[in-house]
Amino acid sequence: MQDEQSLVRRAQQQDQQAFAELYEAYFDKIYRYIALKTGDRTEAEDMTQQVFLKAMKSLPSYKWKNVPFSAWLYRIAHNQVVDHFRRSSRQPTSELTEAITPDADLNDNPQQRTELKVDIERLIVATKKLTPAQREVIALRFASDLPVAEVARLMGRSEGAVKALQHSAVVALRKILVVEEYD
Amino acid sequence: MIRKNNNKQLNDILNDCFEKIVLKGESVESCLARYPQYSAELEPLLKTIAATQEASRITPSAEFRARARYQFRSALNENMTRKRQAAFAWHWRWATVLSTVGVLFLISTGSVMAASTTSMPGQPLYQVKLAMEQAQITLTPSSTAKARLYAMLADRRVTEIVYAAQSGNAELTINLTQQFTNDLSMVSSYATPARSLTFGDGSKNLQSPSVAWGASAPEQSGAAANTLTPTTTAPSAATPPDKTQTVTAPPAPTPTLVVTSPPQIAATQAQPAVTAPGYSSTISDATLLKLLQQYSAKNIAELMAILDKVPESVRAAVLSAIEAATNGYGQILGT
Q1: Which of the residues A175, B38, B180, B251 has the least number of beta carbons within 10 Å of its own beta carbon?
Q2: B179 Cβ contact list (under 8 Å, min separation 6)
Q3: Interface pTM (ipTM) of the complex?
């Protein structure tokens, strides 16, 4: 991908190819972030599409100097998820309503795929047991390439607070997964 | 305090290892080797991070990816098109404003008149054409120029008569013929210096050479002209003179008779004599005379040419137009 700042500038000038490159670069990551937060494939698909449509409409007003494009995109995704659950008056599902497909790179080995699928399901179930802030930091840290500073900015916290939250989230996940494993 | 510092240190170390494992693909073991003093605490956490990273490699299905890509591209195209249309609409609004200004400018410079000269009755620019003709008449300073202008307008009327007749519009043909006749009368009024002959009193005219020569006679209005005779009132551009009042020099007895000019001013203001074979005109303007000869031949021929081609309903009107052209040009040219 070309220099992202240049791509964004071109996309802002109605360059379809530039916007298409940005879309391809972030599509999977945004989907992963939303899937981790919602645990539902259909909802993740719908919301991922909405995120990019909103980004397309809002891009002209985006200013690079304020926030990196990736952080801006994840902010849209975050708001999309929040709005979605606010409208539906419910919290993210604690069970996978539809199975989420594992990474295509790992699909060659059926055995590995089955194991990973279980892991995905377990991870999704486990994240539902985290606090919203822990779930957010896990989703952002595992789905995006954002540095901790940008995650901190997105979450409205200090870097130290995000590191502490990340630590507590990993500890909590560990406990949940180990308990489930023994169950 | 020590515990708080330890926690902060562990947070930093865990974050460092997190980024090395998740973002840079390092192994758990290499991170543990970097921080051996924390390996007991770090190991289960780093294994959880590694396992979570594996599990979180969630990708959209190929079907959804293709469908989403198609829908996004469609939305992108639609968005671009809408923006282009909006931009075009914006440009179009400015283009309209600029066009309006341009039209006004063109009107002021006479370019629209040029554009409208070919318009015919009933067409959008025809009224512009008539308005510009009137403006042109008003702005034309000299009688000579006005005479030439009316000759040209009469020629235009014949073109319109042909158009109206071919369209089968008898009423319009008649109206245009009337306008044509009026235009020829105006040619005669402005171009014939011998018009003073009808004043009946040459001496009075000689007292006012400028009136007698017609150079400023049509523009002259008011007491001086009116004191001579009511018929001396200069024809205004807007109101063609009544044909009964039109001053027409009688045909000269010989074909070579040209201009009747007052002897007192002949030495200084005599116009060049115009000799036109076969014509006995009182017109002193050679250019106008030549123009009228050309128009006469052309217009009568054009009217004659359409006589058998037009609908029966307008044939009488065309015949009247032919008669008007023959008589009108004939009187002016003295044929």
Answers
A1: A175
A2: B157
A3: 0.79
Asked if A141 and B64 come within 8 Å (Cβ–Cβ), the reply is no
What does the domain layout of chain B look like in residue ranges? 16-51, 110-139, 143-333
Q: Which residues of A touch B65 (CB under 8 A)?
A: 27
Largest CA distance in chain A: 56
Check CB contact under 8 Å for B8 and A36.
no
Tell me the pLDDT tens digit for each residue of B4-43.
667 788 899 999 999 999 888 899 999 999 999 998 989 9
Q: The domain that contains A165 carries what CATH number?
A: 1.10.1740.10
* pLDDT of B141: 79
Beta bridge partners of A102: B58
Cross-chain CB nearest to A119 (options B19, B55, B65) = B55
Q: What is the dihedral of CA A10, A15, A21, A23, to 10 degrees?
A: 100
Q: In what helix (H) or strand (E) does residue B210 lie, and over which residues does it extend?
A: helix B209-213
Which of A17, A26, A103, A181 to mutate: most B Cβ within 10 Å? A103
Cβ contacts below 8 Å, chain A against chain B, sum to 120
Alpha-helical regions (H) of chain B: 2-18, 28-34, 39-55, 62-109, 111-116, 126-139, 143-166, 170-191, 202-207, 209-213, 223-226, 263-269, 286-307, 312-333
Domain count, chain A: 1
Inter-chain CB proximity A56 and B45 less than 8 Å? no
Question: CB-CB: which of A45, A57, A174 is closest to B44?
Answer: A174
pLDDT, one tens digit per residue, over B231-269 is 333 344 434 444 434 444 444 444 333 433 333 433 334
The reported pLDDT for the residue numbered B3 is 58
CA distance B108 to B128: 12
In angstroms, the separation between the Cα of residue A88 and the nearest Cα of chain B is 23
Closest residue in A to B58 (Cα) is: A102
